[in-house]
Queue: 4 jobs
Job 1
Amino acid sequence: MNHFTPLLSAMNTPRSRPVSLNSLCLSLILLSSVMVALTDESSSLQAAEDPADMAFLKLHEKPRKRYEGITQELTARVKDTPNSASLWLRLGDARFFAGDAAGALAAYDECVKLSPERLTAFWQRGLVLHAVGQWKEGAAQFQMYHDQISQSDRENGLWQILCNAPLLGEDKALEQRIRYVKPDRQPFPLVYRMYEKEVSLDQVRKQLAATQLSKAEQDSVDFYLPLYAGFQSHMRGQTAEARQLYDEALKSTWAPEAGYGPNFMWHVGRLQRASLTPK
């Protein structure tokens, strides 16, 4: 199809039928719209042809669609059993994994209404607050977890930084970071130092490579290190680097099978990668 036919027809009108200024302007507007559409189409084709993005979208779509189905099932169940806190929790997880962070937050809040004692340990809610841009509330959720649940869990502290950074900037967020003394599982002590700008990602990789780790510890490191390096790059607006790091983390076959926490974080990485992927 010749997208330029309307303009060419107008410009080639016989002299006995002069082209009006309005007609010419309309044709120019049409040509401009066509050029924009062609540019957008070209950009989409280029994005779709990127091997890394194509591989990610293939990885992403299957769980997204699966959790859309699970969301529908749980939504029907919660209508029949609206006073089940655990059911609202499961619905929140399913909505989040399907890409509906706002819906997940609503479900989590229903869970808290029914079971208020869950709030202090509700790290999932903090992650969803970050996802919907309620960073102040997210930072408060992670501070509450530190104050009342665990004073060694640096993963929790990393998310407080990630929530505060969009509000305060990275340097101010680091000034307000949680300070840790107690030991924690690898790679989080080193990752925390990386966020504190004491070591680089390459230095962390070299140090961990020289550390004797069990198979389970190595699997954990291979997943969590690129994942949290990806979150850091994403926070800094380094999108190309973040995409590569997310892709590295999402290659993990350990995380989806290693239990609730690692599986949850695998989906967080998937959703963050999706936010950087042209559709």
Note: Residues 1-19, 33-45 have pLDDT under 50 and may be disordered.
Job 2
Amino acid sequence: MRILFLLLVLLNAAFFAWYSRDRDGPSEPHAGPAVAADKRLVLLSERPLSGEPPGGAAPRPRQQEPPEQRARQQARPDGERAASSGTSQHCYEAGPFASEAEAQRFLRARILGGRAEPAAHEVVARDSRERAGLWVRWPGALPLAEARRLYRELRAKGVEDIAITPTGEGDYYISLGVFRREDTLLQRRERLAALGYETEVVERNRTVPRYWVVTKFNAPFNAPFNAPVEAPPDAPAWQAVACP
């Protein structure tokens, strides 16, 4: 038992001597990646962002158009620039027509019945101010009592087609007829003048719906002006208009 104990003590002393010599001896440093003498270390925060030139070089300037070419581009009209980009549209219209059915017949004959293929087409209604005729009346407005007296006087002398018309402001007109033809208007005035009455003529207007055919093409198109169907002499002509 004593021999075993002494053997263990000797082994521990030998291990301690060997371990102490290995720690105290010189050790070589671990070789890392070599860095060239003319290079400097760059921190992560100093690295350029994506898309920037490395090494802090100045960004490459964007190539600019020559001044002559830039001036020509700016001088081109908006319509020409739109056409060059492929987004240009060309619109045409014809009218007015007295009814929607008449406009639809014109559209079928002049566009849809031929070789034309518009990108869009429609018949639109617009209010139109037109002359309704020439109004013959007593000069100036009268109070209601005076208008009634004059009305009875004219009827007693054989004048027909008379009416008392309110002005909207409390007075009244003596209406002596509305005429479309100037010859019948002159006959009316001459007869009243022969009876000793002076009259005045006022143009009457009214608002009526009129219809237009509107087409839109993606490129300049001359076919609408060369109709495949012979149009009447008084048919409306096509006109180029600005697209909405």
Note: The first strand starts at residue 90 and ends at 97.
Job 3
Amino acid sequence: MKMIKSISIVFSFLSIMSSGCSRYMESPKTYAQDTLGIEMRAQEAPPPLLDYSQPECPVDGYLWTPGYWAYSADGYYWVPGVWVSPPESGYLWTPCYWGFTGGYYGFYAGYWGPHVGYYGGVNYGYGYGGSGYYGGRWEGGHFRYNTAVVNVNTTVIHNTYVDRSVIVNNRTVNRTSFNGPGGVRTRPTKQEEVAMRETHVHSTSEQTSHQKVASKNRNQFVSENKVKATPVALKKADGQGVNTQGRYQKARPAKQQRQAARAQRKVKRAGKK
């Protein structure tokens, strides 16, 4: 009986040690906001953020939402940055971000709220430097734009100011697009934690439609362009696009995009014969 009892104690000790070790041997995890949950998962890290020129704000009161990588069965595709109308006066946009957790890369959706929350420390540019937003602020029910950061035609939009103190001139341009090992390693500030607990509004129907259109444009996929997707930003979700050189180009209708995709597939099939 004593031997059986001793063996039982040994096995209990080994079990405790094993569970403790496994806890310390887990892969490092990202701090991830779980207010809206993970919408997409991928085994590979998203590519670096694309470099593009921001088009002028088309309408007084519109806010800039930066471009980002989304994911589908065909891989990563680029969703262009775009000026959009906020769902409510006084609301700001917290960008989405990719974070490494549990052995995969998870996509955490962006949201609207009275304050900017945590977006993984990713530097999207144009006011979204990794924490907070410096492209403007709400005052008296109107949005004032910081023209040191965002592209606004001051002859048309007069609610502006200039604050260059928020600009950080780094010699090395950081295009890292995710939070986690090999990417950005930050945790939310106290202010961001408070913002994360506030009432949030999901992406507007305009934003949802904008991402859907990008997912159907084969030119936006990394797999189609090998190195990077077409770097395009938009004035509006259904408006004009602007490439890295700042030249405007009309966004092609969905029908034209489908026709172009079919033509590309025919060329590929012909090349294989």
Note: The chain has a mean pLDDT of 78.
Job 4
Amino acid sequence: MIIAVDGVSGSGKTTIAKKLAKELGFAFFSAGLFYRAITLNAVLNNVKPTEDTKLINLLNNSQIELFCNKDGTNSCFLNNKDVTSLLNTEEISGQVAAYSAKDFVLDYVHKLEIQTSKNNPNIIMDGRDIGSVVFPNAELKIFVTCSAETRAKRRTAQLAGQGQNVSYEKVYSELIMRDFKDANRKLCPLKKVEDAYTIDTSNITINQGVVKAIKYAFRKDPNKQIINSNKAQAVVDYFVNSHCFRTLQK
């Protein structure tokens, strides 16, 4: 069973997807790590975003794998070396967009995502084109959104907690720009597909968002056929006496 979770930046989609996976006993994968691994690979080999031929050759001669750990986190291996701790540096964050915009990079990552699903029978994957492009036939699709104002407030508070004094106005403007780029990029733009359920986290907690997602997994819709009866029953059987589910509703 595949559950696709897409959504805007800073909406909490990754946290919701990860917690949902834990509650369902599914494997969780964050698609963004593939793009970060490609960026790291290029930086380590001095391949610039403008050097398409070199980048293609590098991809063809590299191996990138994503694994779900017992605690729900992901480990990313580049050519059999664990590079997870190197993927969220400022250097990689500042360059990942330039590499991920390439059509051949998108194709490469989509193949990795599909292969990952084949290696894991029950998965939840989050990203920006998971339900629209990678897994258009996913049994359940969720789109997580949140107002820019709320996201900016949360992000500003988060940065302040880390000792970084960044103004709300700056964070807000960066989010608006990110939203525009994601929604208007030429290849695989961020969009909510017709058969996806929406979770708006503007005025709810992450746990409340997880509960909504669980309820969507339970729901049987004969018109959309989001989850067939056998798969739905497996989820229900797992949760009917789940202490975790009761705790999440509080």
Note: The radius of gyration is 18 Å.
